[in-house]
Amino acid sequence: MLAHSRNSTIYIGVTSDLIKRIWQHKEGLVEGFTKQHDVKLLVWYEQHQDAVAAITREKQLKKWNRAWKIRLIEQDNPLWLDLYDDIAT
User: Which of 13, 14, 33, 59 is deepest in the core (most CB within 10 A)?
Assistant: First the structure.
């Protein structure tokens, strides 16, 4: 999940290369919703064994209401810190 800032716009996506994809979002190379809303902070993520499982989970999360998504983020990242540096190093 990406966000603009704490308790702001949330974006949910799936990728096979998280580090590369987040870098692309941060550099403004991805046209669409994230660029339009300046959504660049990686605030939550999970890994899956295969693409089918990841896509299934993405679809599930997109159906959740906002409060559930916020609760999920804040379980592991209560300050909505950008997790990109943690995974990129």
Answer: 13
- In degrees and rounded to multiples of 5, residue 35 shows phi and psi of -70, -40
> Could you tell me which residues come within 8 angstroms of residue 47 by beta carbon, excluding any fewer than 6 positions away?
18
What distance in Å separates the CA atoms of residue 16 and residue 23, rounded to the nearest whole number? 13
Q: 53 by DSSP, 3-state: which?
A: helix
Give me the domain span that covers residue 46.
2-88
Give the helix/strand (H/E) hosting 8: none
How many domains, in total, are found in the chain?
Answer: 1
Beta-bridge partner residues of 11? 2
List of residues 6+ apart from 70 with CB closer than 8 A: 7, 10
Instruction: Kindly tell me if the per-residue pLDDT of 15 is higher than 90.
Output: yes
pLDDT in tens, 23-54: 999 999 999 999 999 999 999 999 999 999 99
